[in-house]
Amino acid sequence: MASAADRAKSPARTSVWLDRRTPSRTRRTDQPTGLDRDRITAASVRLLDAEGLAKFSMRRLAAELDVTAMSLYWYVDTKDDLLELALDSVYSEIEPPRGENAHWHDRLRDLATSYRELLVRHRWVSPLAGHFLNVGPRSMLFSHAMQDAVRATGLPLHQQTGALSAVFQFVYGFGTIEAHFIQSSTESGVSQDTYFRQALGAIRSQPQFKEIVESSQDLMDARGGDTVEEMRDRDFTFALDLLIAGIEAMRGR
After folding, report:
1. Residue 197: what are its φ and ψ, rounded to 5°?
2. Which of 139, 159, 207, 217 is the most interior residue, by most CB within 10 Å?
3. Counting runs of H as helices and runs of E as strands, what totals does the chain give?
4. Residue 87: Cβ within 10 Å count
5. Chain centroid to CA 90: how far?
6. Domain endpoint, select from 61, 90, 119
7. What digits encode the pLDDT tens for the residues 149-188?
8. Residues 6+ apart with CB under 8 A from 71
């Protein structure tokens, strides 16, 4: 395996899950007490939730744990290693789908709904999931559960990856945008409903958007739901129903 320095320089970085070595420093008896990878990973998740990915640093994490930054390097070689550990750890929050005897419709809905909730609860997951290989043990269990649900659809093997992409890339995009919206309203210091009304008001006040706004008003009126959250839930549920219906139609061919 390459050294930590080589890994940092390499554009094709090795995943922490594919590098079975301990960190490259020689262990000594004076390594910090009271720390382990699990504690460091849990603290990383808390810090990422509280402050976001842009502000995350080894120095900031060390302050959170009340240790020196160098202490962390007894357990990981790079910050990216730690981010991968944090990313994989939260996949444990995805609820397992109903048992193998459950209909594949229900299993797909269970996984899609839980994945959406994960992306919204931890908004930093989305960019990291798009950056790393996602080959940690919990991520792989999620991947296996998704594949297992799609196998149960009865689609031919050569179509199953397309079905996986249709469902879970939709959820990835939906959950990512939802998390951004919630973050924007929080940073503005207003509720999601107020933020939504303010955004619509700003758009409607622009003359160049008048025709577009008027033509889409019937869509907005028919959308249903008294709150932004209710509107999103309706959209998500129906979009997922459309995808499942599409799989059923293709299966029938």
Report:
1. -65, -40
2. 139
3. 12, 0
4. 25
5. 9
6. 90
7. 999 999 999 999 999 999 999 999 999 999 999 999 999 9
8. 31, 32, 35, 62, 65
Whether 92 contacts 142, CB under 8 Å: no
Q: pTM here?
A: 0.88
Q: Which of 163, 136, 167 is nearest to 151 (CA)?
A: 163
Report how far residue 148's alpha carbon sits from residue 154's, in angstroms, rounded to the nearest whole number: 11
**What are 56-60's contacts with CB under 8 Å, separation 24+?**
56/83, 56/124, 58/82
Model pLDDT, residue 214? 86
What length is written for the chain? 253
How many whole angstroms separate alpha carbon 169 and alpha carbon 213? 28
Residue type, 104: W
The CATH number of residue 41's host domain is: 1.10.10.60
Residue 67: predicted pLDDT: 93
For the residues 200-215, what does the mean pLDDT come to? 90
Residues spanned by the domain of 78: 4-90
Residue in this structure with the two tokens 């798009």, named with its chain if needed? 130
In the chain, how long is the greatest CA-to-CA distance? 72
Q: Tokens at residue 69, please?
A: 């930054």
* Count of domains observed in the chain: 2
> Where a domain ends, among 72, 90, 108?
90
